[in-house]
Specification:
The chain has a 25-stranded parallel β-sheet that branches. Strands 4-8-12-15-18 form a 5-stranded parallel β-sheet. Strands 7-11 form a two-stranded antiparallel sheet. It is mainly beta. It is about 10% helix and about 40% strand. The chain has helices spanning about 5-30, 70-80, 180-190; strands at about 45-50, 85-90, 100, 105, 110-115, 120, 140, 150-155, 160, 165, 195, 200-205, 210, 215, 225, 230-235, 240, 250-255, 255-260, 265, 275, 285-295, 300, 310-320, 325-330, 335-350, 355-360, 375-385, 390-395, 400-410, 415-425, 440-445.
Length: about 475
C-alpha cells in the first residue's frame, strides 16, 4: 500500500472516530432536559390579596370559626382576571397571614404567588373536593374521587411561586370526622382499599409549568403530579412532610418530557421523586440535579413504566435517611422499557436499600403482558455509607437487567447484602468494591483504580424555608 493510500485511510479512520465520538457525546448530552433551563424570576403582581386569618399554634393551622370562611372564590376570581404574564399574590396583612381554600384552577400565563410570611391552607372539608357527590374522604376499590387543591388542564405557561407556604394539613381531622387524610390512607392499607384524598398540585397537558421557591407541606396525597406535558421546572422547592404520611410523593413527572428538578429539598413519606410513564406516553429527557432528599422512598422510576422511560440524568444528589436510594421498580402488569438512565455524583447514607432495581415490584393485577426491561443503566461516582441491601433484579433470561457500575463504593461493604439475578453487569473503568453474583448473572470488565467519589460537605440540613 502506498504512503498516500495509508494517509487517506488514516484520515478516513480519524473522521469516523470523530463522528462516532461526536454522536456518542451528543447522546450523553441528550440524556437530560433538552431545554436551556435558567433560574426563574418573579413576574409583576397583577392582583394582590391580603390575608384575613391568622395561623395559630406550632402546627400552624386555623381557629375553628375560620374553617367556614374560605377564600376560594376571591382567589379564583383573581386568577381568572389576572393579566397574562402577571401574578396573583397572596400577602400577609400585619398579624393576619393565612388563606383558606378549596380547589383552585390555574390559568394560562398566570402565576399564583404566596408571598413571604403567607400560608395557603387546604380545606379540611371533603365535600369541597368531590369529583362526584360524596366521593372524597372515603375508601373505595378504585380511588381517585377527589379534585386536587390546585390544578390545571391545558394551561400553558402557568406557575406557582413563593417563598410562602402551601399546607394541605394532611394530619388534621376532616370536618365532621374523627380521622385525618393520612389516617384514611393508613386505614386503606389495612383494609386493602384505596383512599380518596386530594393531591396538593396536579397539572395535566400544561406545557412550560414552573414551581419556584415554594414550601409545600403536609399534602393529603401526592404533593406534585405533572403529567402528559412538555416543559416543567421545579427550582428551589422545599417539600416537608413526615415520613409516616402514606402516599405523599414529592414530585412525580408522568408521561412528561423536558423536565428539570433542581436545587430542591424533599422530606416526605413516599417517593421523593418518581418518574412514571403510563398510557399517556413516554417520559423522556428529565434532569434531577443538585437536590437533597431526606426521609421518603428515594429517587424512583416507576412503578408504571409501560409508556417507556428514557434519557434520564440524575446528578449531584444526596439521599440521607430515606428507605430507598436509587430505585427502578415495575412489574408485568405495568412494565415497559426503561433505558439510558445515568446516576452521577450521588452520596447515600443511612438508607436500608441504597440500590434497588426491581422487575417484580409488588404485583398490581393479573395482566402479565407488559414486561419490564431495564437497559443502559449507569451508576458513576456513587458512594454509599452504612449497611443495607442491594437488589439487581432482571425479569427473566429474555429481559435481563443491563447495568454499569463505574466508581461505585460501599463504605460498609461487609454489611451490605447483594442479590442479583438475570443481569448483565459491567464493572469499571473506575473502582468498584463488590462483585455481584447470582442466577443468570454475567459480569463484564474489571474495576480499575482510582479515588472513591468524595462526599465531603455534600450532606446538608433540611432548610426551614426556600
Amino acid at each position: 500500500m502506498t504512503r498516500s493510500a495509508i494517509a487517506s485511510r488514516l484520515i478516513v479512520s480519524g473522521l469516523i472516530c470523530l463522528i462516532v465520538t461526536t454522536f456518542a457525546g451528543l447522546a450523553r448530552l441528550r440524556a437530560q432536559d433538552l431545554r436551556t433551563v435558567t433560574e426563574p424570576t418573579f413576574p409583576p403582581a397583577g392582583v394582590r390579596l391580603k390575608a384575613r386569618r391568622v395561623a395559630i399554634g406550632e402546627a400552624r393551622t386555623l381557629r375553628g370559626r375560620d374553617e367556614s370562611k374560605p377564600d376560594t372564590a376571591r382567589i379564583q376570581m383573581a386568577l381568572d382576571h389576572c393579566p397574562t404574564g402577571h401574578a396573583v399574590e397572596l400577602m400577609p396583612d400585619g398579624a393576619r397571614n393565612a388563606f383558606l381554600s378549596g380547589p383552585l384552577s390555574l390559568k394560562p400565563g398566570v402565576t399564583l404567588r404566596v408571598a413571604k410570611g403567607a400560608i395557603l391552607f387546604g380545606s379540611r372539608n371533603p365535600r369541597d373536593y368531590d369529583l362526584s357527590p360524596g366521593s372524597c374522604g372515603t375508601l373505595t376499590r378504585h380511588g381517585h374521587g377527589c379534585k386536587p387543591l390546585i390544578s390545571g388542564d391545558h394551561v400553558p405557561n402557568a406557575a406557582i411561586m413563593g417563598p410562602g407556604t402551601i399546607d394541605g394539613r394532611g394530619w388534621a381531622d376532616l370536618m365532621g370526622e374523627n380521622i385525618s387524610w393520612w389516617g384514611l390512607a393508613h386505614e386503606a392499607k389495612v383494609k386493602k382499599l384505596n383512599q380518596n384524598c386530594p393531591r396538593l398540585i396536579e397539572m395535566t397537558r400544561s406545557n412550560n409549568f414552573t414551581l419556584y421557591r415554594i414550601l409545600l407541606r403536609n399534602s393529603p396525597n401526592f404533593h406534585v403530579l405533572y403529567r402528559d406535558g412538555k416543559g416543567f421546572t421545579a427550582w428551589g422547592v422545599i417539600i416537608d412532610t413526615p415520613r409516616t404520611a402514606r402516599n405523599t410523593d414529592g414530585i412525580d413527572p408522568s408521561s412528561a418530557t423536558d423536565v428539570t428538578i433542581t436545587h430542591c429539598y424533599i422530606h416526605t413519606g413516599d417517593d421523593d421523586v418518581a418518574i412514571k410513564a403510563g398510557s399517556g406516553g413516554p417520559s423522556s429527557h428529565l434532569s434531577v440535579d443538585h437536590d437533597h432528599f431526606y426521609t421518603g422512598h428515594g429517587m424512583s422510576i416507576g412503578s408504571n413504566t409501560n409508556g417507556g422511560v428514557g434519557h434520564i440524568r440524575v446528578s449531584d444528589l444526596t439521599i440521607d435517611g430515606a428507605d430507598n436510594g436509587l430505585r427502578i421498580k415495575s412489574n408485568s402488569s405495568r412494565g415497559g422499557r426503561v433505558q439510558n438512565v445515568v446516576y452521577r455524583d450521588v452520596c447515600i447514607r443511612d438508607t436500608p436499600r441504597p440500590i434497588v432495581m426491581d422487575s417484580h415490584y409488588s404485583f398490581y393485577g393479573a395482566r402479565r403482558g407488559e414486561i419490564p426491561t431495564f437497559t443502559g443503566i449507569t451508576l458513576r461516582n456513587v458512594r454509599i455509607s452504612g449497611p443495607g441491601r442491594v437488589l439487581l433484579d432482571g425479569y427473566d433470561a429474555a429481559h435481563r437487567l443491563d447495568i454499569t457500575f463505574d466508581n461505585v463504593i460501599l463504605d460498609a461493604s461487609e454489611g451490605v447484602r447483594i442479590r442479583a439475578d438475570h443481569a448483565r453487569i459491567r464493572l469499571g473503568p473506575g473502582p468498584v468494591d463488590f462483585r455481584p453474583s447470582g442466577d443468570d448473572v454475567k459480569l463484564i470488565g474489571e474495576p480499575g483504580k482510582g479515588e472513591p467519589y468524595h462526599c465531603r460537605d455534600k450532606f446538608t440540613p433540611m432548610p426551614a424555608s426556600p
